[in-house]
Amino acid sequence: MEMKQFLAVAKPFSTEKRGTYSFTVDSDNTLSVYDDVAGHFTTCHSVSKLVRNRIISQELLRHPCPECGKVRIIDTKNGPRGTCDCADRSWTLVDALK
Ligand SMILES: [Zn+2]
Fold it and tell me: What total of structural domains would you count in the chain?
């Protein structure tokens, strides 16, 4: 299965500058970043949980509820999820990127 990509400003490599990078996320909110040198996505080992959650939350804000157009970020032990008040549901970034 091909994972959907999104762009975020971050510093995912300790040896590279802060900039705009392509990321993917899987259902347990593991973040991967496109490594230009390797030519494939690689797990973001040097990104703290706090920064990971910020990157995921920022992208979640771009994927509001299709019915009410709102999104509220909630924290779970696996990381942020989006939710809204109009329906009893929540979604991960993977759900949002489908
Ligand atoms: Zn809603």
Answer: 1
